[in-house]
Amino acid sequence: MSDYPTAASEPSQQQARDVLALHGKSFYWASKFLGSTLASRAERLYMFCRYVDDLADGDLPDKEQSLKTLRRRLVGERVAVGQQAESFISFAQDNDIPLTAAVELLDGMIGDQQPRAVATEAELLRYCHAVAGTVGVMMCRLLNCQEPRAVSFAIDLGIAMQLTNISRDVLEDARMDRRYLPAEWVNLPASAIAGAEPCTHAFVAAAIEKTLTLAEQYYASALVGIQLLPFRSRLAIVIALRVYRQIGWLLRRRRLAWWRGRVVVGRAEKLMVSLRGVIDLMPKTVPPHQAQLHRPLNGLTGVQ
After folding, report:
1. pTM attached to this predicted model
2. How far apart are the C-alpha atoms of 43 and 15, rounded to whole Å?
3. Where does 210-260 show beta strands of DSSP type E?
4. Has residue 6 been placed in a domain?
């Protein structure tokens, strides 16, 4: 049975919660600390993002055209799309979510329909903004954040998480003819990485190390900016940050053995890092956002 509602039905809150619990275990754990109203909003946003992601990576023969049709609907064209998309548009309007962020998300997914070979760090960061920084922009609205500066830090958290995803999923992505690790770090084709031959291990591991180091810069910035969120939301976002960041620590603990497949943060470890996150709630003065983190992102949604 599909996780998603049929074209003729409106998605229920329980369906949204089930999709998050099944596909976004780290986020589902963090959402438990948001309270029912905010958690419900986060579940609805995740359901749409997952819908788009599954559409992009699914087996439909016309998936690229489906993504482009959805993009046309998001920019206001009257084209037929599924109820899932129409429901999200209504949800976005009700919660003042900028549809420009969702359009950028679609652009990132559409780009993934062709073989992906990232050339530079700047290109990597722009991709991460498209598929994850935009989610940070949307989440800021859902969390009732009234502090304009918070958006920059939310973008940083999305980018950090996506860099973590890329580091974790190198082998899986390569098998889909995608190499997100920049060529300036590891100039190997996706096919060579997918083969996981021993001669590639060290080169790819070195690029993963650079990716995780870059992610740490964005995690550090995001952690500072959490103070700008409404108090009710802070613990949940801290937990999401720390649990996701732990994936990178596990990769390093495993000596970046990417050829062994993805790592998973277990329940006990999630609890441990969540407890550590309490210290991050201590009041701190939030300095200005580090402008250099967003220099490669000029012109993108939410970038000031």
Report:
1. 0.92
2. 9
3. none
4. no
